[in-house]
Amino acid sequence: MPDARAFPTPRRMLALLGLAALACAAAFMLWDARGPWSFLLPFRATKLAALLLVGYAVAVSTVIFQSVSGNRILTPAIMGFDALFILIQTGLAFGLGGLAVSALDPRVMFLAQVAVMTGFALALYSWLFLKGGRSLHLVLLVGIVLGILFRSVAGLLQRLMDPGAFLTLQDRLFASFNTVDAGLLGLSALLIAAVSLAGLGRLHRLDVLHLGREGAINLGVDHRRTVLGCLAVVSVLVSVSTALVGPVTFLGLLVANLAWMLIRSHRHALVLPAAVLIAAICLVGGQAVLEHGFGMATALGILVEFFGGLFFLFLLLRGALR
Amino acid sequence: MIETRDLTRRYGTETVVDGVTLTLPRGGITALIGPNGAGKSTLLSMIGRLIGADAGTVTVDGLDVAHTKGDVLARRLSILRQENHVVARLSVRDLVAFGRYPHSKGRPTAADMEHVERAMRWLGIETLADRFLDELSGGQRQRAFVAMVLCQDTDYVLLDEPLNNLDMRHAVTMMRQLRAAARELGKTIVVVLHDINFASTYADLIVAMKDGRLHASGTPEEIMRPELLHALYGIDARIHEIDGTRICVYYD
Q: Of A69, A136, A203, A218, which to mutate for an interface test with B (greatest number of B Cβ within 10 Å)?
């Protein structure tokens, strides 16, 4: 490859991405700062923290998921993970009723949702990935069908439930980048820190997953345990991002693929931070530009889905689905 | 020593490997031969614990492969299947370095990298070290994967059709290197081969399978006989002794 030498090394690329992310964060905090700092800084910092948490959760969950599934097209969102989380939110509200839901601490409720989500995701998805060599078309089809199923059942339950329960649920479901559910920020950060610390020492096992199920077993990696562990981490991360801002379908696809392109390495210790930084740049930079450059003329979620969706089509047309 | 006892594997109603009891001694090259669908690859995969057995056991040096911890086994036995897909952009050196994973757990030392370079030189791919796998020909990729497995530096090496995609020169070089590994380093190498003349020339022991069962096993002299090969493959085999090796001619 002639351009291999001119291309920045992974470490240099990480440094560049880090600088860009810092610049975006500074712009988000300081741009167009009219009004008292004592209000502006905490207000914007909360939003920034939410954007960063979501970016982290989406980026890391997508990269891990792609390594588990062994391709660059599938993401948790495309496989229906966030639809499953919404179904669980709806199902719990439906089962418990409006009074119980509004009486319960939302954080307790959230933890219960994450636990149920992890259990269901492991039960539903592990069989798809434990046996190596499944057709990508089959997996993709299963994911899309599951996603539609979860959304339909959630929609049905929302129509059936009593209006009081629906009102409390509605608060949760209407989360977006502009109306972040700030009450869950602290708990979300804790959850993310916990799964990240648990995974940190095991990143090299993810590298080995590149060789597929048989290659990983040959090198002594317990493939089953690694895949289940990864799916559990993905479930927690998707729960966090969906609870905070609702479903974002194509953001993960966009940032993970950009990370693989910019960091020319197979090592997750380099690709994961890059994906997180790219997600931070997209979300924080995008939100700063939208709020101050375009006066909130459109929503960040819509833009991200637009460009992410175009990118998905580009990947499909380029023949990545083989 | 590798021992299988009543090893059985079924896919649906079809029994692919049917009660195979087999002892492979330590050291030397063992060739697994037999017609398509004889169960050679399945047997090899079960020995290498890539797929589970429906009945029976496999032990390697007395360790039951179904119950030994994966990383303990990975330092004793390595296996390479026929088809190896890698999605990530890996360079040849990255791939071969994976062979050190059971020893280094993702933190390769200078000694590990020395192993990597040696394995690449062994298979003549050191000039390709920085090329990416998707830029290689089938034969070059095949040699890179074999280099990875050799780099794992295990006592037992199981290879499923390692000569796939290789031209005559590289096929002969590969077998010569495997024989050297067996003779000089004391490794035990089990290969699935389709070309019985390679088996006859390089193997110390030939195990012939048919319809999931053990058909025959013995030295090349014992296996390379017209009536045995006729029963095994259903071909009219003419055996010639050339330079002290039995060569089978089966072309019309």
A: A218
